[in-house]
Design brief:
single chain; about 290 residues; alpha/beta; two-stranded antiparallel ribbon
């Protein structure tokens, strides 16, 4: 339990919730609370505080987290080397991802990798580009899927380039095969607020006046459902539009818009052996 309690603390702090941590770790909430309280008593410090948003690290907890992460990573390395004497290859890889990658890219990469390395496990954290950049800088994840180009301090592998498309209700699609960006100022537009990343901002900057935003939804699939019902049109990456159950018409933008997707890490040489193995596997698979 000596190392496990530190891992439980990290997981709880990373997820910001005793409930989510209990679901991931397979402990009851009360057991997790008891373990963390015991760790706080042992160290003589308050590490976590509750607020209306969940739980967060105290200032003392924030200061200790880098050393605790390093301790847990060293423990994983000891276990990996010990397993090597038995002919096993073990380890855990922490990956930051977002919806379209989680659905359309990551499963095939994990499947092909697990065929060769069945004892390596994965922990997936899903968030926005900004979340993933933060998690990489804080050491919460080993690898992160991102829109490229990424910040210069990260090492990246280009996975694919995809189109950004306009979507319409199937029975209300424009006849032209391309949708002029300037028409965004006239068409009712459904916005996903989180999509105001550099992709969408760059497109909006090309429009003489702001799009006529009539609805917003926080989920990509909610946007698709609203478009299907004729509430407006929207713009989404092509990868996200694959194998959807919604009756949508897609049009290329005019001028065309694209984005590049890749995977990033701070340094391949600094990765754990398991993470380095997966990095090499992704590198061998690219471009998809």
């Amino acid at each position: 339990m000596s190392i496990k309690k530190y891992e439980i603390l990290l997981q709880t702090a990373d997820l910001g919730s005793f409930t989510k941590a209990s679901e991931v770790l397979g402990y009851t909430q009360s057991a997790i609370s008891h373990i963390i309280t015991g760790l706080e008593d042992e160290l003589g410090l308050k590490l976590l505080v509750r607020d209306r948003f969940g739980v967060r690290l105290t200032a003392e907890g924030e200061a200790l987290v880098p050393a605790i992460r390093a301790l847990c990573q060293q423990n994983q390395e000891v276990l990996r080397q010990a397993a090597g004497f038995h002919g096993l290859e073990v380890g855990r890889v922490r990956i930051g991802t977002f919806l379209s990658v989680s659905v359309h890219i990551l499963p095939q990469l994990l499947h092909s990798f697990s065929q060769q390395h069945p004892n390596i496990t994965f922990e997936l954290l899903q968030g926005s580009y900004e979340d993933i950049l933060t998690w990489l800088s804080e050491g919460r994840i080993d690898l992160g899927f991102l829109r490229l180009p990424a910040p210069s301090h990260l090492e990246c592998i280009l996975l694919l380039e995809e189109r950004i498309l306009a979507i319409f209700p199937e029975d209300q699609a424009p006849e032209a095969e391309r949708f002029p960006l300037e028409e965004l100022r006239q068409a009712p537009y459904i916005l996903r607020p989180d999509s105001l990343d550099s992709d969408t901002r760059a497109l909006f900057r090309k429009v003489p006046c702001a799009p006529r935003i009539t609805y917003s939804a926080k989920d990509d699939y909610a946007v698709m459902a609203m478009v299907e019902q004729g509430l407006g049109m929207s713009i989404l990456p092509e990868l996200l539009l694959k194998r959807t159950p919604y009756r949508l018409a897609k049009r290329e933008l005019d001028p065309p818009a694209k984005r590049q997707l890749g995977v990033a890490c701070k340094s391949p040489q600094a990765l754990s052996p398991a993470a380095r193995q997966f990095w090499q596997h992704v590198k061998g698979a690219a471009p998809l």
